[in-house]
Protein 1
Amino acid sequence: MEQALAAASEGLLQSIERKRGGSKLADAEIEQVIADFTAGRTPDYQMAAWLATVACAGMDMRETAALTRAYIGTTPACPIRIPGRRTVDKHSTGGVGDKITLVAAPLAAACGVPVAKMSGRSLGWAGGTIDKLESIPGLRLDLSAREVQQVLSCTGMVITGQTAELAPGDNATYRLRDVTATVDSIPLIAASIVSKKVALAAEGLVLDVKTGAGALMSDPVAAAELAELMVELAAQFGIPARAIISDMSQPLGFAVGNALEIREALEVLQGREVPGVSELGRLVARLMLQVAEPSLSDESADKCIGAAIDSGEAYRTFLTWASAQGASPCFVDNPDCLPRAARRDMVRADRSGWVAAVDPRAIGQAALRAGAGRLVQNSSIDPGAGIILFARIGTRVDSGTPLAEVHHSGSDSRCLEFAAAAFDISPAPVPAPALIQRIFSSNHEDQP
Ligand code: URA
């Protein structure tokens, strides 16, 4: 046993040295590094060094594909199917207030496209879908492959987290990346996201790559590189994919924080227009319908999506799905029973003018300190904590106008300072940034 551990550590250290020296890593070497870490044969601190070296030195396409395979491991892909229909998935690179999965998945499912989604937890300052959904009492997000199939067959949609069974390598490294500043690496992100899609045997994929101050890839050129790489990587694994580059220079919608975002997503499914969330949610759902059925026109897809909202079908789909994954009847009967934070405090404008910036990282930090995220690995989350924004870039405000309401436990007052610091007010009008910047397919770029 001791010898096996020593050999695994030695192999990992050699791999770090080779990557640091500019070598390409062999497929078998990458596979061994991930398998050893997943099996507990190498310690966190050595794996953190390997991830940091990869984040600095990068990986080419072959290495990234090998890392994707290594993350999936030897477990065969879970054949999630509804006979005669293509199962699709969507994934965002993450951002502040990004609740698009909670809108797009039920919309696509309500339009008859099966959605099997493997989501992640929060990374850095950005919230994670799994953390958001955990604020729903009773909801289970650690489904076995068999349960994934059962829920999908019953409700047309299923959402689960990475588990030791599905994409175990991603599961093992993801939490470590979150606390070692190794999140914003193009190959690490691409392998992490695509491995989850291959593990659930997705037959179509929509990627929402964020750019702007609150995105992992703040630079639009890097965001486009990541989008193209993921579309190509997915194609190598036989998954047709489309990618959107969307704005994250301010939080998406008004709500930031777990239960607060669930409430906002449910309101959008009931027809409320929320800036950013409604438009992007409908676009992602449209592309999901089109990767499932490539001949479907934009008009037909949009009509179906509009009808799913107007008829209440998308909202009902969310509740039926939540119930199938164990949500307590109290939530299904009255979604407003979601947890709430103990305190609410208002942040107000200190002068009149136009909102020129709502810094998403500062809002993300405010939400983290309010209790909505983790500052250290495995710490607990206050599901009711977060921020409700009242102003977005371009909003006209007077001195004293409420800008944000901070929902918190009162244990870290810096949440209020971060929230106040997020806003910049200009004496002149400021235009709102474009939400959708580019749309890619495997072989071409579409007009947004
Ligand atoms: N989402 C993931 O699943 N993985 C990443 O690395 C980034 C976003």
Protein 2
Amino acid sequence: MRIALMDSGIGGMTVLHEALRRLPREDYIYFADTLHVPYGTKPKEQVKRSIFEAVERLHKERIKALVIACNTATSIAVSELREHFPFPIIGMEPAVKPAVELVQAQHKRVLVTATPLTLKETKYQDLVAKVAHESIVDSLPLPELVSYCERFVFDEDTILPYLRDKLGGYQLEEYGSLVLGCTHFPFYRSHFRKLLPPHVELIDGSRGTVKRLRQVLEQKSLLSEAGSGDVLYWSSKEGPEESERLRQAYGLLEAERYKEV
Ligand code: DGL
């Protein structure tokens, strides 16, 4: 049986990339809800319906576990999904905890970037309240980055001015870490790196999520040694062009521009 990963679009491939590295003897289905992307700027109930539709479809495939490779979908639907479906579900949330731990000794601040919907949800606000004792966390929605990513816009002439404008209001020297709290954003690691002071660490949740996936598979004796890292790319948008687009997106992650900087 395969492990499914789902996202509104190509963002969750940053988690798939990590999963293929850490768990290469598993096989996967990657599901992009391209018909309904973006999630992060839409009303919660509407997005929840799209997520349930997508997961119903994956359920028909007898998957052994589901990774919600999307911070937005996790924040609005993970508890209800767990009540509804029989397979283990691994969610993800902005990596605020490690980001706060990292800066505490240096007396620096944390900047969390994510979608507007993630940042609005009580799940995120509770998380910040739990892990950060003083008000050292600032939140910055970057919805346009999701649209750029879905359109494969990575050129620096477009992205750097956009990010420069969004980061312009912050005294970046005061920050010790920046959280990439949307799975689309690690596609822009090198762009962020160009604009941030060298001491600011970029943190995303893929590694923690895949660690958790491994733990869950181990606990349930579901870990495989027989797979080969095969991936089926599926989308809510039918057609060969879409399958090709998803394959290309994964290729981009391996390319020069996604170096771990
Ligand atoms: N990739 C998603 C996330 O991690 C959602 C992006 C969107 O559809 O707005 O939040």
